[in-house]
Amino acid sequence: MRNYIIKYSLTVMFACCLIRLKAQQLPAQREPETMTLTQIWQQAEVNSKRLHISLLELNKSEQGIQDALAARLPEFSADANAEKASDLPIYTDGLLGDVVQHNVVHTRYKMGVDGYLNIYNGNKVNYKVREQQALAQIAGEKHKQDISSIKLQAVTGYLDLQMGYMFRELIVSDINDQQLQFKRIKYNYDQGVVLKSDILRAQLKLSHEKLSLTTINNNIAIASQKLDIMIGAPDTHLIRPASNMTPDSLEIKSYEGYIAEALGKSYDRHIAKGTISLSDIQHSMVKANTSLKLGLYANFTYANPETFLYPYYLHPYSLGIVGLKASFPISAFYLNKHKEKAAAIEAEQSAIRASDIEDKLRVQVNTAYLRFKEAMEKVEEARLNVSQATENQRIVRNTYFNQTALVTDLLDADVQLLQSKLDLVTAQITALLQFYQLQDITGNL
Fold first, then answer.
1. Separation of alpha carbons 60 and 54, rounded Å
2. Mean pLDDT, the chain, as a whole number?
3. pLDDT in tens, 298-311
4. Is residue 156 included in any domain, yes or no?
5. Mean pLDDT lowest for which of 96-105, 139-148, 325-334, 336-345?
6. Which pLDDT score is estimated for 10?
7. Shortest CA distance to 259 belongs to which of 363, 174, 181, 375?
8. Is 188 a residue whose pLDDT tops 90?
9. Under a CB-based contact definition with an 8 Å cutoff, are residues 224 and 238 in contact?
10. Which DSSP string do the residues of 324-372 spell out, in sequence order?
11. Does the keyword section mention Membrane (predicted)?
12. 189/181 Cα distance (integer angstroms)
């Protein structure tokens, strides 16, 4: 029995020394800044690198629309050249015979401007504009989807941080309660009512909770750093939730209501619909390869010497030409056949993918909805457990100090009460996470 008591005494002394040592090694931290979830969302949208990338992609697609519209404008090109020419030898009797030198204009130059205005090319320009508009619409939906994903990531970190603070509050409150209870046990020991082992067990439980408090503080610091990175704050910046969110005030709709919202607002479904439209446009563009091309062209030339008409004039001249050009790609009827079939297959694939996304969306909504209802039931069950554990602790505590229960029964009752409170917090946070995941799936986040 003596060795047993010495063993527990050394364990308690070691645990207390470890707590004091860790407390001395912890760096000084600033006071946490109180922030609401809305503030976290706002700063995350501004500082998120992922959102910045998707925004640049959206801006790039908008420039693609302007580039496609610019194809409706006439095309102009200018060219100029200057050259020196030698005399022109004429070999009247072959290469080895007599040579007659023919004088030419040694300095030659030419400047010109060409222009072309497309009138019709199978409506390809309009198809190109519509294609870029479809790409911009898809990029816009992806950007909204990224915003929703960042919000869900932020709320996950925010709730993780809230759970850490709520855990710490419960542990600190329980430590204070255990310290008061320990004083009563020690008083009874001094009176010779209880054994030394009762004191040692109470000390061990108290030491264990203090070590748990250190772990919780570290978890809070880690969760705070993750949010700091998300909102662009320094790593040493501590955040504290403005208020403890609970699932009690959440507005819950019916399953059918969430399905209707998901089919109308889901970013994946909007992206799929945009992909269908894009595939149809690209199919039309491929079919336009066999269309007539019609356009206006113009040319203005200033050159020296004049060799356009005979007899030639060894003087500068200028010439302007305006005309109508038409062409028809005959070979496209057999060269374009397989391209058109491939584009039609791609359009069919896009439609099937969209239908598949709708099926998956219904599964996701149903899963998230049932998990949320399950989490809410666990919240109610956890509240009942807290009530029962509280009453059980009251009864056991009274019976212990009336000498009709063991200290193990008392400590077990304390542990059960603390664990039931922690389980309630966990259930509430889980229900909130399930709710926001449901909002993300239905496009409401």
1. 10
2. 85
3. 999 998 887 777 77
4. yes
5. 96-105
6. 37
7. 363
8. no
9. yes
10. EEEE--TTHHHHSHHHHHHHHHHHHHHHHHHHHHHHHHHHHHHHHHHHH
11. yes
12. 12
* Cα–Cα distance for residue pair 436/311, rounded to 1 Å: 86
Structurally, how many domains does the chain consist of? 1
**Is there a domain that residue 238 lies in?**
yes
d(CA 320, CA 99): 39
Kindly report the CATH number assigned to the domain that includes residue 380: 1.20.1600.10
Look at residue 97 and tell me if it is in a domain. no
- Per residue in 130-150, pLDDT (tens digit) is 999 999 999 999 999 999 999
Phi (first) and psi of residue 182, to 5 degrees: -65, -35
Here the tokens at position 361 are: 């969306």
Residue 90 lies in a domain: no
- Compute φ and ψ for 442, nearest 5 degrees: -85, 0
Distance from C-alpha of 436 to C-alpha of 444, rounded to nearest angstrom: 9
Separation of alpha carbons 4 and 220, rounded Å: 37
CA distance 438 to 435: 5
Q: How many residues does the chain have?
A: 445
Burial of 309 (0-12, 13-18, 19+ CB in 10 A): exposed
Q: What is the dihedral of CA 279, 280, 285, 290, to 10 degrees?
A: 120
Domain that holds residue 272: 33-73+122-292+332-442
Give the global pTM. Answer: 0.78
DSSP string, 216-270: HHHHHHHHHHHHHHHHT--TT--EEESS---GGG-----HHHHHHHHHHH-HHHH
**How high is the pLDDT of residue 14?**
40
Distances (CA, A) of 35 to 39, 41, 228, 231, 238: 6, 10, 12, 11, 10
Q: Which two tokens stand for residue 306?
A: 């004049």
CA proximity to 250, closest of 56, 54, 434: 434
Q: What is the pLDDT of residues 241-273, one digit of tens each?
A: 988 888 888 888 888 889 998 888 889 999 999
Confidence of residue 89 (pLDDT cuts 50, 70, 90): confident
